[in-house]
Amino acid sequence: MNVNPSMKGNTEALLERRSKAIARGMGMAAPVFAKRAENAEIWDVEDRRFIDFVGGIAVLNAGHRHPAVMKRVQEQLNSFTHTCFTVMPYEPFVELAEKLNALAPISGEKKSIFVTTGAEAVENSIKIARAATGRSDVIAFNGAFHGRTLMTMALTGKILPYKVKFGPFPAGVWHVPYPVEHKGISVEDTIDAIEWLFKSDVEPSRVAAILIEPVQGEGGFYVAPKELMVRLRKICDEHGIVLIADEIQSGFGRTGKWFAMEHFGVEPDLMTVAKSIASGFPLAGVVGRAQIMDAPDPGGLGGTYAGNPVACAAALGTIEAFEQDKLLEKAQKQGKIIMTRLEAMKARGKGMPIGDIRGLGAMAAFELVTEHGGDKPDAAAAKTLTSKCLERGLLILTCGVWNDTVRLLCPLSAPEAIVEEGLDILEAALTGN
Ligand SMILES: Cc1ncc(COP(=O)(O)O)c(C=O)c1O
Fold it and tell me: Do residues 216 and 144 lie in contact, with contact meaning Cβ atoms separated by under 8 Å?
């Protein structure tokens, strides 16, 4: 890294203060401290520049500090910052609900609620499904990630590091395999597992919801086959089960459409949103069929900060940014650039061996494996690559049940030259050049 000698020491001192003041459970992917950021670039306290292929974990699809977002936020800051929507409502919440209802790929009348975090959105989607069906249980997927609260930990299908030491978890949650073609898990295997569950563990009339990420995020960027969604929709219709799509990571343009579900031509009943909806301001929501959304009684949903006005303003600015800058088209283009480059890196067969490459639109990832042409996960290599990229000025993040997958979540607003520069750094780090 290019360290300005006169600045040296800031990071070391901050790291020491961090470790003294903050519980170690708050992990740290990159031991550098942010100072300022613009679109797809971040500078740290030593004035080192980093290209951002993480976006605060899929939060910055519209980039850091997009002018449309900053303008809306500034206007809101000048008016008021909090009333609690369920005490004294305000227009930005209503306007955002109208916009989200119009964008959600669900037919008929829709309604929305806004809360603060992704986990809270998932919790609320389960509460709403339970209220609407009068049933208790939920089916989720191996490898899924839905959050860090007790119910969302129960729904999460990855033990390390999310569930270790934190049980017991709420009952009535069942996991089935997520189809992963190159690991030999087919759609048929998933459907069979659900059928078995209905015979051996829980009768379908007790199941309130099936909860699925259309593209698994934390679990490794596995894209659900269309056939799976079609079959899940059929099972839900047959048994009166609510189909919930968790679009917290895959939504807001990441896959080249507003929501990943649009790729499948299958409608969920409810959808959870968060992350890139508000470009870094804490906001999440549930949108869905009005009849289901209206099942809980007044006062049953909400929260002190639910749908904070500044965060709602940021979300309205984010939607404007998408429209102004044609970010859905840019996502498709960026996805193609990234996939082409990754395939070329793999084909060259130099340096760290690349395994499966996958994704949808600009939600792209690749596995690192122990040998060229092999399929054995190499978590250590993924960790090494992350550090090497950081040293060279590129932020990347791993994921996957085997922690062997590198996910790329570059802002969709990034100029092509920056995307290419980031990929050049990635390639150099992979090959050791
Ligand atoms: C698919 C999905 N659901 C839920 C969550 C939880 O969101 P939050 O961290 O805002 O609680 C995440 C976060 O990574 C996620 O990717």
Answer: yes
271 CA to middle of ligand 1, Å?
A: 13
Q: Which atom of ligand 1 is nearest to the CA of 117?
A: 10
Judge whether residue 7 has pLDDT over 60.
Answer: no
Q: What is the pLDDT of residue 9?
A: 54
H or E stretch including 139? strand 137-141
3-state secondary structure 32-92: CCEEEEEECEEEECCCCEEEECCHHHHCCCCCECCHHHHHHHHHHHHHCCCCCCCCCCCHH
Give the atom of ligand 1 at the shortest distance from the alpha carbon of 249.
16
The b-or-e profile of 313-334 (16+ CB within 10 A means b, else e) is: bbbbbbbbbbeebebbebbbbb
Q: 187-208: per-residue pLDDT in tens?
A: 999 999 999 999 999 999 999 9
Residues ≥6 apart with Cβ < 8 Å to 136: 130, 172, 206, 208
Residue nearest to atom 10 of ligand 1 (CA): 118
The answer to whether 10 and 46 have CB atoms below 8 angstroms apart is yes
Contact indicator for 126, 211 with CB cutoff of 8 Å: yes
Tokens of 371: 């040998």
Assigned token pair, 415? 């100029």
Separation of CA 60 and ligand 1 centre (Å): 14
Question: How far apart are the C-alpha atoms of 185 and 198, rounded to whole Å?
Answer: 20
Q: How far apart are CA 108 and CA 290, in angstroms?
A: 8
H or E stretch covering 176: strand 173-176
Instruction: Report the distance separating Cα 178 and Cα 186, nearest Å.
Output: 8
What residues line ligand 1, using a CB cutoff of 6 Å? Answer: 57, 117-119, 122, 145-147, 213, 217-218, 246, 248-249, 274
With 0.90 as the threshold, say if the pTM is over it: yes
